Amino acid sequence: MKVTRSLLGGLGLLLIEGCSSENHQENLHEWDLPHYVEQTDVMSRVTDESIALGKALFFSSKLSLNGRLSCASCHDPKLAFTKNEPLHNGVSEEAGIRNAPSLANLAFAQFLTWSNLKLRSLQHQAMVPLFGDNPIEMGAYSNMEGIISDLANDDELGELYHAAYGIQAGWNWDNILDSLQAFQLTLVSLDSSYDRYLSGDMSALTDLEKQGWALFRSPRLACSQCHGGPLLSNNWLGGSEEPESIFFNNGLYGVPNQSMNYMDGGEAHYPAGHSGLGEFTLQSADDGKFRVPSLRNVAVTAPYMHDGSIGTLEDVISMYERGGRQLTNGHWQGDGRLNPNKDSAVKGFTLTQQEREALLAFLNAQTDEAFLEFQE
Q1: DSSP E strands: which ranges in the chain?
Q2: Residue 71 among known ligand-binding residues
Q3: Residue 19 known to bind ligand
Q4: What are the boundaries of each domain within the chain?
Q5: What pLDDT, in 10s, does the model give residues 18-77?
Q6: What is the DSSP code (8-state) at residue 289?
Q7: How far apart, in whole angstroms, are the C-alpha atoms of residue 207 and residue 183?
Q8: What letter would DSSP give residue 281?
Q9: Torsions phi, psi of 197, nearest 5?
Q10: N or C: which end of the chain has fewer CB within 10 A?
Q11: CATH number of the domain at 193-372, please?
Q12: What CATH number belongs to 2-185?
């Protein structure tokens, strides 16, 4: 067995390899996609064997330090691979600061986290919950060799591993990350009534849902200005790669006085860890900007926002009607309408009750029932 540095080397993490693998039979996965999304280069290299291994690892608690958490602990298939809690605890019982996002359709997404510009591949993104320490989620970094040993001693996982990477291949973190990526690429959710409508079935949407779609795209509401494209998010591979087209401040937090960034020595008017893109660019103008989430399956992915701070779709709509959220108590109280970084599209609007029902109906039409019936 040898110790080397590879995909994990950039983070200074060791990975453990066995002997090199011989040539073995692999079956490239066949994709069945609607006409409005395209198979990516990464998808074209995925094998059925690596998908099968990645699926088993995704639902296995062996990847966590305490052997009790799996990827599925925070990404429940029945909830479109989200968690119905604002935040989640890792192996140390320390709560994180981000709401667990849906894993649906990440194959077609430009950016994979709420605010980190550097994580552009699913392999690299998986390092955060596995090896990150702020907060500690799965805690694998503390026992990398021990986890590899546990996996190697699991006969069922071993059979899947060798089918994917060869009979002589030793367990290593590169292959684990590769297989997790392969499985996540298959989480395509594009079979809602909305999709059937886009594919030519004019009866797939009700009249109320069609009215909601018209409102969604209207200049008055301007929802589609950020939630555009096939994913109902600007964060898709067919759109712009520029961060300013994907990350926005929506007035979730108010600024009671002057906008001051903590990097400038002033008081940031955001909770710790919630300055979003600004924490990576160190530009105060980027404070409060987060990736636009997809609205696919949005009716089952509550709570909402990067911090899970809004509990219902009705409350989300009310916030945008107002033109920003107002917090009336606590340290972070303030009026989101006054946030100088708030995007100009969040200008507020007025809905009748019937229009509100139509908009909600359209959002509910994004639910892919077959996707929610995913079997482990």
Answers
A1: 2-4, 15-17, 247-248, 290-291, 326-327, 334-335
A2: yes
A3: no
A4: 2-185, 193-372
A5: 444 455 678 999 999 999 999 999 999 999 999 999 999 999 999 999 999 999 999 999
A6: B
A7: 37
A8: H
A9: -65, -45
A10: C
A11: 1.10.760.10
A12: 1.10.760.10
